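Technical note accompanying the year-one report. For the benefit of new consortium partners, we illustrate the data format agreed upon in the data management plan: each record pairs a sequence with a structure-token string. No post-processing was applied to the example shown here.
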Amino acid sequence: MPAPFRLPFPPELPALTTGLSHQSYVHWPYPPDAVRPLLPPGLRPDVSDGCAWVSLVALVMRSVHPLGLVPLPGGTFAQTNLRTYVRTRDGRSGVWFLSLDAGHPLMPVARAFGIPYHRADLAVRRSPDGRTLTYTGRRRAGRGRNRPAVPPGYLLTVRAGAPTRTPSDLDRWLTGRWSSYSHWAGVLWETRIEHPPWRLRGAEVLELSETLTAHTGLPAPGAPALAHMAEPMDRVLLGAARPVGRA
């Protein structure tokens, strides 16, 4: 597992700290040409064995603290992101969020800075034996003429498998990312992330229906090629967004 990126500021002063739990990943391979039109200038699809990948990641954010100091009221809530994997012109790798749906009313404020947050009604249920998680989500209808007749949403049920003792190269490639990118005011921005390596488990997808991929402009993905679950993480640090360069 690659070492996490060390943030360029003292860890007690990140832009945001949070814990993460109930985290599941569903991954699909795509032709790079299907992903490329969805990226801004300055980014290209990152590929593994010739494939770009798109992941649906459902989780719960816990005890969110902006600036690492101020607790966000109602700071434990569900979040879902649809993401792909990218490289900058100088070869740095990271994540591009195609969409982020959050169950907290303040998170969509980040749209003003190029982060595609949407307010959504999300729920997470754990089975009595603790091995199965069911996630449901429906984006709240927006305003304006271009809002969809039926907002995108999803239903996902996954069952935990055995711990991943030795992650494969693809496991590390999909989950060991230490930067995310956004595009705002004609500039590409990088947000750096620090946390210990994920403790992964295999996962079996028992049920999945979703319209997030179609809503973002992707072809229908078919059955997932791979799924993971991650053990809870108590402390994830996000840095302040920094300009990479004008796109």
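Partners are asked to follow this layout when depositing records. The radius of gyration is 17 Å.
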